[in-house]
Design goal:
This protein is mainly alpha-helical. It is about 75% helix and about 0% strand. It is rod-shaped.
Length: about 280
């Protein structure tokens, strides 16, 4: 009976030493299993990250391609716009050139139209010469005869005829300039430069000191070309001519018309300055 407890104690010691070793072994196996699971999950995560990186790379490539296509589309659009603008500019230039040619041809036709009747009355033309205009402006037995239209010299275009008179004007050849501008007006009475020609006739008279003739020429600008761009200048220069003749009231009236009707023009500004001068010069009442 005394040996039995000793045996039990011995068995307990044996099993007690065995159980911790078994538990440790199992814990190690569990740890190894957990490590393997973590390694597998890590590999799967790495594969997922690699796949995501490839997807991002493909997406960036597509975005770059799309950006390139967009840039090319914008460049093509700008090139097309520039081309269209250039074409429009060329068309406008050609239209302007065509308009100039049409105007020149119209003037040439007008010159021919006026030249043909003049040639038909020439000696040997088979028709009597028209009665000469009365320089004094009196009536003949046939009634008042207007001055005949004068044909331009052969080969002389309207612009060249005007430029010739203008060259005489700028060189101080007043008499030649007056004759040239008068010829231009008689030959091309409906030309756009007719009012300019009439105005420069007045300027030539003014430069010669023939202020009465200058006033008459300026009056022709005002009466014959009321919508022309030389009307303000004609009023202003007429006022100066009146002033040079000592006709201060008439000069003031001309200046007042320019200031009232054409205040935003250079002539309007100069007319106002001359009104102020006349006012300062007026003796106290």
């Amino acid at each position: 009976m005394t040996r039995l407890p000793g045996a039990i104690v011995m068995c307990a010691l044996i099993f007690g030493g065995t159980l911790p070793a078994e538990a440790q072994r199992r814990e190690q196996q569990q740890t190894m299993a957990d490590i393997r699971i973590l390694q597998e999950q890590t590999q799967q995560l790495q594969l997922a990250l690699a796949s995501l990186a490839e997807t991002l790379a493909a997406l960036n490539a597509r975005l770059d391609d799309q950006a390139g296509v967009t840039r090319k589309a914008f460049a093509d659009q700008k090139l097309l716009s520039d081309t269209v603008s250039a074409d429009i500019r060329v068309v406008r230039e050609r239209v302007d050139e065509t308009n100039v040619r049409i105007t020149s041809l119209s003037q040439e036709v007008e010159a021919m139209r006026l030249t043909i009747p003049a040639m038909s009355y020439a000696p040997g033309g088979g028709a009597p010469a028209p009665p000469a205009a009365d320089p004094a402006g009196t009536e003949t037995a046939m009634g008042a005869v207007p001055p005949p239209a004068q044909a331009a010299p052969p080969g002389m275009s309207p612009q060249r005829l005007f430029d010739t008179a203008w060259a005489d004007y700028t060189s101080g050849q007043w008499t030649l300039a007056i004759e040239g501008f008068n010829t231009y007006i008689r030959t091309f009475p409906r030309s756009e430069l007719s009012d300019d020609a009439q105005h420069y006739i007045g300027e030539s008279y003014y430069s010669e000191g023939r202020f009465t003739d200058a006033i008459e020429a300026y009056n022709r600008v005002i009466a014959d070309y009321p919508t022309g761009d030389q009307v303000p200048n004609a009023y202003y220069k007429r006022g100066l001519a009146f002033d040079r003749l000592g006709q201060v009231d008439q000069a003031r009236q001309s200046f007042e018309v320019v200031v009232r009707d054409y205040p935003d023009t250079t002539a309007g500004t100069l007319a106002q300055q001359n009104l102020d001068r006349l006012t300062q010069r007026r003796p106290p009442g």
